[in-house]
Design brief:
3 copies of one chain form a homotrimer. Chain A is α+β, with helices and mostly antiparallel strands. Chain A contains 3 helices and 7 strands. In chain A, the strands form 2 sheets. Chain A has a 5-stranded mixed β-sheet with strand order 1-2-7-5-6, covered by helices on one side.
Chain lengths: ~160, ~160, ~160
């Protein structure tokens, strides 16, 4: 199965690739490397989760928010690949910002929501390194913001 | 117009490329990719802004601080390019750390100060992806710290 | 002297390359560039430092924690290089997250613990750019979390 078929099997439809909140573009590419801007937990055009982990947002809700961010990031990769997700050669890295109370320590469990979707959609090519940041404030008051870096196949390119 | 001419038209002079605060270098390069260390809002050798966004620093002051950080980052790119900014092929990414009160949500408006300067100086080549982090503490108590990644032309190199 | 000999001269033994806390891998590679996931101050399988800089953790303890994170990161690079650290061509970048009280400003002094170990082990090839983030919360309550990006020699590869 290719990534689009795996998404379908998971019952997931790709959302529209969202525009940024400011004077920037949703992703940039250098050679084979695509890096996204911050991906929010958008669902049907509205933010599905708001608030602080460890306060009004539970770890399970955070997991779902991270998964939704990852789905939005896949939509950006799809856009960067001209609509052909099978050109994603490797998801290299996920970076997640989490809005938490100061004594929160379950960052890894939350961000697994994004990591596990990448594994489920891209298989071995979805294995990635990861960074996590417990932030003090967040645009839109979102509990999760996700950045993805991926290596993609480009026409006529060879692996560097 | 080239980037140096655009800077002149904006009435901006490049500052000295600032040294880091510790045991590191202001930028590193791998192949065509240059990445800067954190750029502060230095002006004539002193920090032009200090304090927390949403408290003692307004969104408009934050915008100006971000713009000043970007000017300092351009000085680093100029250094990385041996004094020839026309070798900047693409500004790939801006990453901004903002020192804010916990309920601050206007991160995008602040960081636009950096993004819009990149657009004004580099034109289409200044379009970039972006990351923003609402930090809890900051070196020097600066409200903004900016990192820039750019693709530059190197002698005898081909696009990877 | 090569990096392994410098480590021995410093009296340092490489720890086991630690697994991640979640559904991710400890490092990923694209071409010649290796990027690690977050490295904690592990020592003999337990976290050597816990708590917040400026509160229960001093700057000197933070320096030692950062140095220990860097040693764990070198173990990851060693793994990525198949056990031959002399294949590390350049340490490109260190990114450090520090758990601090809100008015903490000595981030650079703390992160120098990591930077100076890289210089001592890799010499000129250990010179790097750097990013620092004062976070509001941290996995495991660690005072320091470190990410390293390095350029390595790969079989049959030429500098891009």
């Amino acid at each position: 199965m290719n990534p689009a078929e795996r998404l379908a099997e998971l019952g997931l439809a790709l959302p529209m690739a969202a525009a940024g909140l400011g004077a920037y573009v949703p992703w940039s590419r250098s050679g084979r490397i695509v890096t996204t801007s911050g991906q929010f937990p958008w669902s049907d055009g509205s933010l599905a989760y708001r608030g602080r982990l460890g306060d009004t947002v539970s770890v399970e809700e955070g997991y779902q928010a991270a998964r939704l961010c990852a789905l939005n990031a896949i939509a950006q990769l799809d856009d960067a690949c001209g609509g052909d997700l099978s050109r994603v050669a490797r998801v290299l890295r996920l970076e997640g910002s989490l809005l938490c109370v100061p004594d929160f320590v379950d960052h890894a469990d939350v961000l697994n929501g994004a990591s596990e979707l990448m594994r489920d959609v891209f298989g071995v090519a979805g294995l990635h390194s990861r960074a996590v940041t417990g932030v003090a404030s967040m645009p839109l008051g979102s509990p999760v913001l996700l950045y993805v870096q991926a290596e993609i196949d480009i026409e006529g390119s060879e692996s560097p």
